[in-house]
């Protein structure tokens, strides 16, 4: 388990990029399909604004695209090169996997995107 000060901890636990304590999303369940993409307006702990200007999270589509392509290439190498699976079963497995992983990909891409612009401000000791 990564340290609480680590960005990996914050990304994989859906925590605020500024304090690594407050929840980024309203629900921690990625597969609660009614609320899986709903962000908190502000961090409940440090009050960091998660609702930036309109269109801020459009950049997360590039992160999502990179994750999807990486997953497709890795799956291709495992199935087609490693196990000699034909193209049609590969496409079916890839499509099904991407649909099932959509809520995770969506959430990860948004939280990675905001981590690129908001830095961790740990506890300041006086």
Which features would summarize this protein structure in a list?
126 residues, 45% helix, mainly alpha, 0% strand
3D structure, described in words:
It is built from four helices and no strands. With about 130 residues, the chain is mainly alpha-helical. It has one domain (about 5-115). It starts with 6 loop residues before the first helix and ends in an 11-residue tail after the last helix. The model has no long low-confidence stretch (mean pLDDT about 95).
Helix and strand arrangement:
Blueprint: H1 7-12, H2 60-82, H3 87-100, H4 102-115
Helix pairs in contact: 2-3, 2-4
Q: What's this entry about, in short?
A:
The chain has 126 residues and is mainly α.
Helix content: 40-55%
Number of helical stretches of at least 4 residues: 4
Structural class: mainly alpha
- Mean pLDDT, to the nearest integer, reads 93
The succession of helices and strands, N to C, reads HHHH
Low-confidence stretches: none
